[in-house]
Structures are given as C-alpha cells and as structure tokens.
From TrEMBL:
It comes from Sphingomonas pokkalii. This is 3-isopropylmalate dehydrogenase. Belongs to the isocitrate and isopropylmalate dehydrogenases family. LeuB type 1 subfamily. The lineage of its organism: Bacteria, Pseudomonadati, Pseudomonadota, Alphaproteobacteria, Sphingomonadales. HAMAP family: LeuB_type1 (MF_01033). It catalyses: (2R,3S)-3-isopropylmalate + NAD(+) = 4-methyl-2-oxopentanoate + CO2 + NADH.
Length: 350
C-alpha cells in the first residue's frame, strides 16, 4: 500500500492540502496517508521547522504531498529556524534536484490572466528548474571589505554532473511533448552559464528529434510575456527558474492554478508535490484559497511517483470540467470557498 506523507504546513497550506487529499481518497487507489507538521507548524510543535520525525516520514513515504510554509510570526527568527529552512532542507535531504512546473491555461480562464486572451491562448509549457544547486546553496555570508564597507555575498556554482542530470530531465520531458527544448542561461556574462550551455549542447546530440534552442534569461523574461504559448519545455537553473515560473503563473490566470513536482529521478521515485504558491497569510483561515494548484499537484504525484497516468488524467480532467462549468474561487473572479471548489472537482470525478 503506497504511503503518502502529508505535510500541510502553514497559512493556506492545510486548507488546500485537505482538498487535494480528499480528491486522492475519492479515487480509491488504496493509498495510506500519514500527516506531520512542517514550517511554522513544525516550529510550534517541536522547536524546529523540519522536525526529525517529519523528515523521517518524508524519507519513508512513497511520495510527499506538501502544502506551503511561511508564517509572519517567525520572520524574526534566525535563518535556520524560519519556516523557509524546512523547504530547502527537505529538498536537499531527499535529493530533489528536478522541479517540474507546468503552466497551462485551462479553457475558460483566458480572462483571468492580466495578459490579453490572444497572447495566453494555447499556453501549455513546462519549466524544468534545477532545485538544489546554484546560488541558493553556494557559500554565503557577510564580511567587511578592506575599505570598511559591509558586504553580503552568495556564490553561484554548478558542476557538470548537476547540469547533466537536470538537462536529461529537460530533454526527456521535451521528447514526450512537442519536442522543443529551450535552455535558459546568461552565458554572455556567467561562467556557470558557459558550462551549462556546453553540457546541454553536447547532450542535444543524443536527442536529434528534439529542437534545442538557447536563450538568455533577460530575453526569456520578455518572450514569456510577448508570446508565452510559443514555448514547450524550458530548462534552467535554480535562480532563473524561480523567477521565470512565478512570471509564467500569470499567463495561466492565477498563482492558485500552478502545481509542481520535485523529483530525485525522472520517474518512479520518491518525490514531493506542492502548489507553487506560498502560505498566503493575507487570506489564510478564510476559506478563500484556490485549491486547484494543490489538487493538480496530487495528479502529478500519481503520474511521477506512482506511475499512474490514468488517475492523474482523471484528476486533471475533473479540474478542467469544474472550471468549464464556471466553478471559480475569488482569485479567478468567483465566489466559491476552498471546500466548495474541492466539491466541484470531486463531483466531476464521479
Ligand atoms: P504567496 O504565494 O503566499 O502569496 C502571493 C499572493 O498570491 C497573495 O496575495 C496570496 O493571497 C495569493 N495567493 C497565493 N496562493 C493562492 C491561492 N491558492 N488562492 C488564491 N490566492 C492565492 O507569496 P508571498 O505572499 O510572497 O509569501 C507568503 C509566505 O509564503 C512567505 O512566508 C513566503 O516565504 C512563503 N512562501 C512559501 C512558499 C512555499 O511554501 N513553497 C513559496 C513562496 C512563498
Ligand atoms: Mg518562488
């Protein structure tokens, strides 16, 4: 019986994760669920944002369903005690180097995007973001310059192996889709990007069926607004992927629509699945949050960790059907509560 670790976290995390779990339970796949606190909730329960028992559960489980972390009450704590430390810690501990962030425009949501309907029409892209390297994990600190000035520094680095494994995911993803891979870097300025481009280009020879292009990140930011639907798969580093995927969410109408998968291998392995949004303290506890990103993350869990493509598609079709009938939370211009949106998806599953 596959074990799903459920880590609801903070703010709207528990509200949206509840709906995702209800959808998984309704499919009757014989899954077992075990819940544990993480983030601010972990700190309150045990004095640490990533309690040992929570990490042990995540390691033991076949997959992790994650909500969101972040709690304004704990912002003043030291960095390693803040809720955000739990997220970086769990990604690193599970070796989740590949972050898949699909951005799809569901039919009927054309008007929800701040971009013109004709620009976002047909949007169906996947951003493959490297997740446990780059400037987020390099040496960092504060020091004083010889002139006596305070200086902060963060070191950006990638080795060949780190680039190779994420490039592989990008090519495999593109091969299964529309066979277009755009590698995003800043090779005109950065040494890490030079290496990145060399490795990706060399791997391209193994995938003659995939059309490989390279784009500088500043141009990619522009193209994502000018013609987002022209992309198929984008592969990029941790920092660039973080920024570009939030940007892409606006093409899909709302940040409440975007799921993600964080993987330690292409498929069949332990992975973590979570909406790309945070804990949204401004709407937490009000039953207003859109649970679609969490529900679609559950679909990705079935696809990548349990290799159950049919059930994944059942969930995605149910979300599409509910939206097509006009089910909308406030972020999409509607009035449904989180639970009512979950109900709307559940009733399409039958
Ligand atoms: P956020 O994603 O929590 O919220 C940004 C805006 O989007 C807010 O106005 C919020 O109400 C809205 N929003 C987000 N999710 C929504 C949903 N499902 N339905 C409707 N509206 C939604 O980002 P913010 O405000 O920058 O960060 C809040 C906290 O979350 C911080 O502590 C931050 O560190 C944390 N965070 C955690 C992440 C994670 O757990 N993966 C990712 C991003 C931020
Ligand atoms: Mg981000």
């Amino acid at each position: 019986m596959p074990l799903i670790a459920v880590l609801p976290g903070d703010g709207i995390g528990p509200e949206v994760t509840r709906e995702a779990r209800r959808v998984l339970e309704a499919l009757d796949l014989g899954l077992s669920f075990e819940e544990a606190p993480v983030g601010g909730a972990g700190y309150l329960a045990s004095g640490h944002p990533l309690p040992d028992a929570t990490l042990a559960l995540a390691k033991r489980a076949d997959a992790v369903l994650f909500g969101a972390i972040g709690d304004p009450r704990f912002e003043k704590l030291e960095r390693h005690l803040r809720p955000e430390a739990a997220l970086l810690g769990i990604r690193k501990a599970l070796g989740l180097f590949a972050n898949l962030r699909p951005a799809t425009l569901f039919p009927g949501l054309e008007d929800a995007s701040p971009l013109k309907p004709e620009v976002v029409n047909g949007l169906d892209i996947v951003i493959v973001r490297e997740l446990i390297g780059d400037i987020y994990f390099g040496e960092k600190g504060h020091r004083t310059t010889p002139d006596g000035l305070r200086q902060g520094y963060d070191v950006m680095s990638y080795d060949e192996q780190e680039v190779t494994r994420i490039a592989r995911v990008g090519f495999e993803m593109a091969k299964r889709r529309r066979k277009k891979l755009c590698s995003v870097d800043k090779a005109n300025v950065l040494e890490t990007s030079q290496l990145w481009r060399d490795v990706v280009t060399a791997m391209g020879a193994e995938y003659p069926e995939v059309e490989l292009t390279h784009m500088y990140v500043d141009n990619a930011a522009m193209q994502l607004v000018r013609a987002p639907a022209a992309f198929d798969v984008i592969v990029t580093g941790n920092l660039f992927g973080d920024i570009l995927s939030d940007q892409a969410s606006m093409c899909a109408g709302s940040i409440g629509m975007l799921p993600s998968a964080s993987l330690a291998a292409w498929s069949g392995a332990n992975g973590m699945y979570e909406p790309i949004h945070g804990s949204a303290p401004d709407i937490a506890g009000q039953g207003k949050a859109n649970p679609c990103a969490a529900i679609l993350s559950a679909a990705m869990l079935l696809r990548h960790s349990l290799e159950d493509e049919a059930s994944a598609q059942r969930i995605e079709k149910a979300v599409a059907a509910a939206l097509a009938k006009g089910a909308r939370t406030a972020d999409l211009g509607g009035t449904l509560s989180t639970a009512a949106m979950g109900d709307a998806v559940l009733s399409e599953l039958q």
